[in-house]
Specification:
Strand order of the largest sheet: 1-2
Radius of gyration: 20 Å
Number of strands: 2
Largest sheet: 2 strands, antiparallel
Strand content: under 5%
Distance between the termini: 16 Å
Structural class: mainly alpha
Order of helices and strands: HHHHHHHEE
Number of helices: 7
Shape: elongated
């Protein structure tokens, strides 16, 4: 059990670092959108490349921050029943959800998305627009990358939950339960 906490901390920090770095893409996306709007509105210059770059950047932003969002408990939950559950019940439901839904979904989707990007690379896929962006495999590769980060986040959360449910009291002291109701276990920043 003692080895699970360092692994969970490492995975959480790795995913969080990439998520925080990926969040900076939003600044670039804002610049691209403003440029596109200004060019279209005031200079009547449209650019398929700028429009495609907007959705590429949006995809990169979403996919690089997806795992971090999961670590922070930003995913949707149905609170109808959950708010009345004990912390242990919530932990069990979350753990089962990770193993029954999250990990199988991400692993299967990663497998398909790797093939998806590989085919785009082998076929030298480009935009359907004559003036659009090329190298479509790059953006398609982010699907596998982002889902891999979500998988690592799910593994980290599962390890925290296992420690919360089965770990010794000495390790449980190092786990910080966010908020007064159990959302997801997290390691205390000073721990």
């Amino acid at each position: 059990m003692n080895v699970l906490l360092p692994i969970a901390k490492f995975l959480s920090r790795f995913v969080a670092a990439i998520g925080k770095a990926g969040a900076w893409v939003s600044i670039l996306m804002i610049v691209v959108i403003l440029t596109d709007v200004i060019l279209r509105r005031y200079f009547v210059i449209g650019s398929a490349k700028l429009q495609e770059l907007e959705w590429h950047l949006h995809g990169i932003l979403f996919l690089t921050t997806l795992g971090y969002g999961y670590l922070e408990g930003a995913h949707v939950r149905i609170e109808l029943f959950r708010e009345k559950w004990s912390a242990r019940t919530k932990a069990w439901v979350e753990l089962l959800g990770i193993f029954i839904f999250l990990l199988p979904f991400t692993l299967v989707t990663i497998s398909f998305s790797i093939d998806y990007a590989k085919m785009a690379y082998l076929n030298q896929e480009i935009s359907a627009s004559m003036t659009g962006l090329g190298f479509r495999w790059v953006i398609k590769s982010f699907l596998a990358f982002g889902l891999s980060l979500l998988t690592l986040a799910g593994i980290a959360e599962a390890l925290y939950l296992i420690l919360f449910l089965f770990g010794p009291k000495s390790l449980q002291k190092e786990i910080n339960l966010r908020a007064t109701t159990f959302d997801a276990p997290h390691v205390a920043e000073d721990g």
